[in-house]
Amino acid sequence: MAGLPSDVTDLIADEHVTFLRRARQQYIGRIEDGEVKLALRRSVEAVGKTIEPEALELAAASIGGFAYMLQLVGYFMWEEAWMSEKDLAFALAMLDDSDGSRLVDIAARMDVTNGYASTYKRRLLKKGVVGERPGGRLDFDIPLLREYLDEFYTE
Hints:
The protein has 155 residues and is mainly α. Helices cover 59% and strands 5% of the residues. The protein has nine helices and two strands. A two-stranded antiparallel ribbon has the order 1-2. The longest helix has 14 residues, at 67-80. The termini are far apart.
């Protein structure tokens, strides 16, 4: 388990989490990008999937060698790998709005009803892909997802 030092200290101090007090802590330091890419690629291939070289490069750059970020980015990559076509269409329909998207605008771009689009809104909220902002607007909660979608899914 990787964590930010202050969070780990707080967690270990928690009287209800005694098993972590007995765990041996070790500072890992920066993980080389090549090792990060190897670990991600092997994890993806272990379940019979593939990863585009560009996605692997973007992930490694986002991680910056930090173990905590490797765990976090890896988690979100895993979650995103299972995004349906309609989930993706919903996310792509958000790209035109730089300050958050209204559901009515997303539905119009998808050429579906608001009720239909709401199904995908709920799914992406539950997965942590998008979050609600003031005024009922939706925006991406996963760092760099907007940029990734814009680069690899739009012309």
